[in-house]
What we know:
By secondary structure, this protein is α+β, with helices and mostly antiparallel strands. It has two domains: 2-102, D-amino Acid Aminotransferase, Chain A, domain 1, CATH 3.30.470; 116-187, ATP-grasp fold, B domain (D-amino Acid Aminotransferase, Chain A, domain 1), CATH 3.30.470.20. The protein is built from five helices and eleven strands. A five-stranded antiparallel sheet has the order 3-4-7-10-9. A hairpin with a 2-residue loop joins strand 3 (17-21) and strand 4. It is globular, with a radius of gyration of 17 Å.
Amino acid sequence: MLTVRHKGGTSFLEPIGHWQKDGDYQESWQPQPTTPEVLQKAQQIAEKITTALGGYGIFGVEMFVSGNDVIFSEVSPRPHDTGMVTMISQDLSEFALHVRAILGLPIPNIAFHGPSASKAVVVSGDSDHVTFENLEEALNIPDTQIRIFGKPEVHDHRRMAVLLARGNDIDDARRKVQEMYSKLKIEI
């Protein structure tokens, strides 16, 4: 539950679902389907925790959901890797919201653009020169974007980019980022 504390109060983004591998973010989607009861509980938990911490900015409040139970896991007082999906899912990304909140600028609303997904591009190997190829084919899929982080080297494994897509629903958006990934070629 990405939560932004700002001079106008506390705002909640649409809930984000994600999966990890070996403790690292691999994919996220927004909105995570949930019931109104679970959403209300998650927002109450997020508000209680972020209010207790104080300050302005975006907080990544992770929770586990089991049935109608919502269990707090951890909080990150900064933009969260799973929140990279907000770079395509809404008008103000988690990064823009964080900056606005810290600078005391207004956040009158956050416009959600629809079901979206992100996929981390993790490169494994040992190289001082990593290049991305076949970008045109990967980006030929409608409603997609890629953000390459500009990291020139990899030693072992490193997140080097993120693939972003909007879809008709979460499954469609997740399918698009997988298709993008299959077309992308990385040279190390």
